[in-house]
Amino acid sequence: MRIIVTCLLLMMAGWVQAELKIEQAYVRGLPPGQPNTAAFMSLNNTGSQPLTLTAISSPAAQSVELHTSRQHGDMVHMEKLDSLQIAAAETVVLQPGGHHLMLLGLHQPLAEGDSVILQFSFSDGSQTSAKLAVRSVLNEPAAQQHQHHH
Ligand SMILES: [Cu+2]
């Protein structure tokens, strides 16, 4: 019964579920007072057509942007990307130091154990959403590796 109701709601919303599997997704939990944070995940296109991610939104933030990190000498700059293409049957990994999502203007501080909903929209009109766990920056894999090596 619940499945039927969900399908009806999806149909009424007028969008198609994107053929995308989102894994290893988390939002970086920062100390209170930080207005923005980043989200990381792997995006696996399970369909037979390329997907172009064009917009992301979240009820937890004023806006969500797609960024990439680029090294200029000793400085790492973030640049906004307008879209991200995921080829059929390919996986794009968003990770610290590379592509990532930025949650800008957080409505409230995010702590370990919280969760954040993200909604993804694609150029073909399909959409999907994901619920991401908040992981404290101290528990992030990259941070652990960093500490491990030094
Ligand atoms: Cu960024």
In short:
By secondary structure, the protein is mainly β. The protein has a single domain, classed as Immunoglobulin-like. The protein is built from two helices and eleven strands, in the order H-E-E-E-E-E-E-E-E-E-E-E-H.
How would you describe this structure to a colleague?
The chain has helices at residues 2-13, 141-149, and strands at residues 16-17, 20-29, 37-45, 51-57, 61-72, 75-81, 84-86, 91-94, 100-106, 115-122, 126-136. The chain has 150 residues and is mainly β. The protein has a single domain, classed as Immunoglobulin-like. Strands 1, 2, 3, 4, 5, 6, 7, 8, 9, 10 and 11 form an eleven-stranded mixed sheet that branches. A hairpin with a 7-residue loop joins strand 2 (20-29) and strand 3 (37-45). It is globular and about 45 Å long. The chain starts with a helix and ends with a helix. The structure holds copper (II) ion.
Beta strand %: over 45%
Number of domains: 1
Main sheet properties: 11 strands, mixed
CATH top level class name: Mainly Beta
Quote the average pLDDT: 88
- Number of β-strand runs: 11
Pairing-aware structural class of the strands and helices?
Answer: mainly beta
Please give the count of helices: 2
Q: What would CATH call the homologous superfamily?
A: PCu(A)C copper chaperone
Helix content: 10-25%
Q: Radius of gyration, Cα only, in angstroms?
A: 16 Å
Task: List low-pLDDT spans.
Answer: 144-150
Shape: globular
Helix-strand pattern: HEEEEEEEEEEEH
Distance, first to last CA:
55 Å
CATH level 3 topology: Immunoglobulin-like
Bound molecules: copper (II) ion
CATH architectural label: Sandwich
Pfam family, one: PCuAC
InterPro entries: LpqE-like (IPR007410), Lxx211020-like (IPR058248), PCuAC_sf (IPR036182)
Protein name: Copper chaperone PCu(A)C
